[in-house]
Design goal:
Length: about 250
């Protein structure tokens, strides 16, 4: 079988810069779930921005020709690069852009690395914000921590205690709040007060809203509204309302 020059180049590149270390994505259900939530929620939030790349558990190579110079943040966001699928992220191919925001899901296996080695690497690279979250609350105090790069060193971002007792830390890079609600990490848009949802949560919310509109039809009919008025009020098609009425 003849191997093309492009195929050979690709195989050599992958052998030098692997796209996987063969290890599981996360060591526990909770670590995996929050990794997925973070990537999905931020992808949805930035879906209209073509210059924002959101990913997680992806190899980031930061020195050309040095494959050992690699990190793999659980969740990260890069501004000023093309939104596209990547097998790995090579800084020298991305105009030198490094993540602006990194979130690590801390566990027993990652605690020491998350607390010591990774902050040094991220600071040296110029990652502007470094957040850590411990789903079980066993390894970090407090359970959610955030740091911002100031003159080459990370300084702790002071958390806010909301009136309802919720711990909230603001990310200047994302213009979002990271909040700890009954031990659960969630992203919030402080401008709207709305929680960022995952793909599954978004679909569930859509279905619930659709059902709520349908459930409102009988009550609106009892109030004397016409089918046309109900359709306009509920943002439904006239024929759809007629079908539901029948």
């Amino acid at each position: 079988m003849t191997v093309s020059a492009n195929q050979l180049k690709t195989e050599i590149t992958y052998s030098i810069y692997p796209i996987s270390d063969g290890k599981p994505m996360a060591e526990s259900d909770s670590a995996r779930d929050y990794l997925i939530y973070g990537v999905e929620a931020l992808n949805i939030y930035f879906q209209d921005r073509d210059d924002v790349y959101v990913s997680g558990n992806l190899f980031i190579y930061y020195k050309k020709g040095v494959p050992s110079a690699v990190i793999a943040p659980d969740v990260f966001v890069v501004f000023g690069v093309e939104k596209k699928k990547r097998l790995s992220y090579k800084v020298w191919q991305e105009a030198g852009k490094v993540p602006n925001f990194v979130l690590e899901i801390t566990s027993a296996a990652t605690q020491e690395n998350d607390e010591t080695e990774k902050p040094l690497k991220y600071a040296a690279l110029g990652v502007q914000e470094y957040f850590q979250y411990d789903p079980t609350g066993d390894y970090l105090t407090p359970q959610l921590k955030g740091s911002r790069l100031v003159e080459g060193k990370y300084q702790v971002i002071s958390p806010n205690d909301l009136p309802d007792g919720v711990l909230s830390i603001h990310s200047e890079q994302l213009s979002l709040d990271l909040r700890l609600i009954d031990g659960e990490l969630r992203f919030y848009d402080p401008r709207t007060g709305k929680k960022l949802l995952s793909y599954q949560e978004t679909e569930q919310a859509r279905q619930q809203a659709e059902q709520a509109r349908r459930d409102a039809i009988p009550r609106l009919l009892e109030l004397g509204l016409s089918v046309e008025q109900i359709a306009a009020a509920l943002s439904l098609g006239v024929e759809e309302v007629r079908h539901l009425v029948l």
